[in-house]
Amino acid sequence: MIKNLPTKPAGEPHLTLTRSPCVAALGAAQPLHRSTATHHGDPTGKSPTRQQQGARIVMEPESLTGPHAATPTGKPRARSLGIPFGGTPGRWNAITDVPGVQVGYTTLIRGDSVRTGVTAVLPRGPAAGGDPVAAGFFSQNGNGEMTGVSWIEEAGMFSLPIAITNTHAVGLAHAAIVAWTVSHHPELGDDWSLPVAAETWHGYLNDANGHHVSEQDGIDAIEAAAGGRIEEGSVGGGTGMNCYQFKGGSGTASRVVEYAGTSYTVGVFVQANFGTRAELTLAGVPLGEVLADDNPMAEHFAAPPGAGSVIAIVATDAPLLPHQCQALARRVTLGLARTGTTGSHFSGDLFLAFSTANPGGFSPCNPASRPPPGSGQDAEHRYDKLRFVPWGRLDPFFAAVVQGTEEAVANALVANDDMVGRDGHRTPALPRDRVAELFRARHEHS
User: Fold this and answer.
1) DSSP β-bridge partners for residue 70
2) Of 13-27, 120-134, 201-215, 284-298, which range is least confident?
3) Could you report the per-residue pLDDT of 286-319, keeping only the tens digit for each?
4) How far is CA 264 from CA 21, 137, 393, in A?
């Protein structure tokens, strides 16, 4: 949904505030409700087998329709090009396949030099924003920022929405989460908030020093959050980002994991802004040299090759301990490696994983927020308790993170178009026709 805004001068594009859509754009109409506790990525409703979870599935592009083929506005996704991926995706093939998780965007495109925005991820939706989730953080390379992680490493949990934006707007995104919390959860108003706000740098396409993101933009992104299908590419915090020197930005994917008779979901969301053209690999196929032409970033930009950053958010409804969440976050590195990156010193690669299981499993942090003694929930004598998957049974969940991360990056690349920004800087989109032809030829000769 695009909000109406005051008219701009002639010839200047409008500032757009984009709500995360959850409507079907292609194929048969899709119901608008979120997935329930048990999911099935296979349209037959069957649970994935061990072979399906590990194998790369090749889909003929013309046979693929619906949410796995395109975003709500009709932008193609990676599977529509015939790129094979391992594992079984969830219903939407998105982080929002995890029950309760919602995503919202504020996308700012104005004039010749504003290409930015904010992405919000709500682990338990807006109503349960104060209920902490088990969480773990991992830094592959610390040349970036994600607030709140000192507390996550201390306590193994966090609450409130997550915001992802550009490097110089982290403080405003942080303030937006606090302002939203005070407005929507007054019962938490006296608590000290330590929200998660993360960033990647977009100074090639956007006027990074112009302070174009406001606190209200962050609040709008949180307010826009919804489940179901979500947009990808140049939206939200990913609007001005580049990946492998093609247009990058926001991407997502999910995998279904069967454990103890229950189908759980692992969802990944990335803000992809990393990598050099020569490194690019998709589904094991080196593409950097084949697609080396048309690379204005390499020709005209002074930043070191590979500079940028990537933020990854991993969500699951599987019951996990905080250290198990951290183990999932570490596996993001392996998913990124599948796309070719070697992890530049100039890239801030920061990953957060959380589990939405065990609602109410953590006591409130602030004693003033706890129930009074004798209320039946006496905080002075309460034990917290978390149910969790045994450590020795986590390998399928690790695989799901790796597979989901690889596909989320590919989706961020595919669901995009050329963009021109500040000082006439241009970033080309991944040439989808050429990539599709490469994989078509590979499939025919396999």
Assistant:
1) 76
2) 13-27
3) 999 999 999 999 987 677 877 789 999 999 999 9
4) 24, 21, 13
Range of the domain at 81: 50-360+387-444
**CATH number of the structural domain spanning residue 431:** 3.60.70.12
Residues 84, 403: Cα–Cα separation, whole Å: 11
What is the secondary structure of 60-117 as a DSSP string?
-GGG--GGGTB-TT--B-GGGGT--EES---SSSSGGGSTT-EEEEEEEEETTTEEEE
d(CA 80, CA 271): 21
- Rounded to whole angstroms, the Cα distance separating 125 from 110 reads 30
The H or E element containing residue 267 is strand 262-273
Does residue 317 belong to any structural domain of this protein?
yes
Tell me, yes or no, whether 15 lies in a domain.
no
Spacing of C-alpha 98 from chain mean position: 12
Task: Specify if 99 maps to a domain.
Answer: yes
Q: Which residue has the tokens 């109410």?
A: 360
231's CB contacts (< 8 A; 6+ apart) are 18, 20, 21, 71, 72, 73, 75, 105, 250, 415
Closest by CA to 108, choosing from 272, 255, 239, 232, is 239
Task: Give me the mean pLDDT over the 208-232 stretch.
Answer: 97
- Taking the CB of residue 143, how many other CB atoms lie within 10 A of it? 16
Q: Which of 96, 12, 95, 85 is nearest to 53 (CA)?
A: 85
* C-alpha torsion sign, points 152, 270, 44, 99: positive
Contacts of 33 (CB under 8 A, 6+ apart): 227, 228
Q: Which of 52, 107, 63, 117 is nearest to 85 (CA)?
A: 52
Rg, C-alpha atoms of the chain: 21
Burial class, 154, CB count within 10 angstroms (exposed 0-12 / middle 13-18 / buried 19+): exposed
Domain count along the chain: 1
User: Does any domain span residue 36?
Assistant: no
Catalytic residues: 309, 347, 349
User: Cβ(242)–Cβ(273) under 8 Å?
Assistant: yes
Amino acid at the residue 108: L
Q: What percent of the chain has pLDDT over 70?
A: 82
Report the residue count for the chain: 446
CA–CA distance, 346 with 103 (Å, rounded to integer): 28
Which of 262, 228, 232, 222 has the alpha carbon at shortest distance from 97? Answer: 228
Rounded to two decimals, what is the model's pTM?
0.87
